Amino acid sequence: MTAAPGSAARLQGLDAARGLAVIGMMAAHTWPRAGDGAELLVDGRPSVLFAVVAGLALGVVTGGERPVDSGGRRARSRLALRAVLLLLAGLLLWMLPSGIAIILDAYGVMFLLLLPLLLAPRWLLAATAAGFLVLAPLVRDQVVAVTGAGPTGPTRAPDGAAVLLDWLLTGYYPALLWLPLLLVGLLCARSGLHRARVRVLMLGLGAAACLAGYGAAAVLPGVEAAAHSGTTAELLGAGGLAIAVVGGALLLLDSPRVPRAVTALGTPVAALGRVALSVYVGHVLVIALLEPLGPAGFFEPAVGIPLLVVLTAAGIALGVACDRLRRRGPLEAALSGLVDLALPRGGSARLGA
């Protein structure tokens, strides 16, 4: 979905934001908790950052502020196939006894929903994002009130209709509710991520949206912004935080006037971000293998914190090794290989890059 390691067009800040998202999700699955149901800062927000970065990355590989459809139908088909493969990978991971709410299948569904708007003008992206931000949570609430549906995980849902409902509206990562996150990321990419003014606006407006969402939940009765609540306030708060993080990362890691010592601090996290799929799947497999310890064991300091350190260090080591060898991550390469096998690249296709 992004340029090859070492490409001049690659944005370190974008990779670092993706790396932070993966580390945050691993922390949510391992960090000690004060008690049952206690919410941590890393609950929900890293997965929102992951979704926002997805929209940004799709915008970058489709031409940035000057989108082009140079690959035509074949390039769109390649991107759709990637989405389907992610969906299938997510379903397989749901079958493991990890106790983790897998995001990859929902991620694939979000990609498919985004395809029709991939090359839309900025005004349409903004209007669609605003509409879904307000209306989708209302529709979800009505559906839940009528059906009593709630997050179950695709492999545990009783039938196909329930799986679809889980993906679109009632799951942990409901695609229709989260579509504004990808659209805002795409909108930022269309505005020109290489522009300092755009990065500053992302930082400032993202922080303002974060304050508005979480502030509304703090002072207004009946407004909720808890992780995975799927309310407008949560999406605004967590989405704004994600945009601010990306804007800040771009300012710190992709600005020529920033000292190299500062940019060097983000290099390991950016390296992890370039192998995000491999690291995410790897941490699910590790936790599933350790499941005999008991799910609660991962929330004990003696288990959870060392496990998070090991997983993060291993992810960074994998990313650095792949950078040195100028190769993609193992699963990133496998995904691209499968797409190439099914739909060989056209001469100038970009959407399937």
TrEMBL record:
MF terms from GO for this chain are: acyltransferase activity, transferring groups other than amino-acyl groups
State the InterPro entries in the record.
Acyl_transf_3_dom
> Where do the TM regions start and end?
79-96, 171-189, 201-223, 235-253, 265-290, 302-322
Span of domain Acyltransferase: 12-320
**What keywords sit in the KW lines?**
Membrane, Transmembrane, Transmembrane helix
Look up keyword Transmembrane and say if it applies.
Answer: yes
- Name the Pfam families on file: Acyl_transf_3 (PF01757)
The molecule here is called Putative membrane protein YeiB
State the organism of origin: Microcella frigidaquae
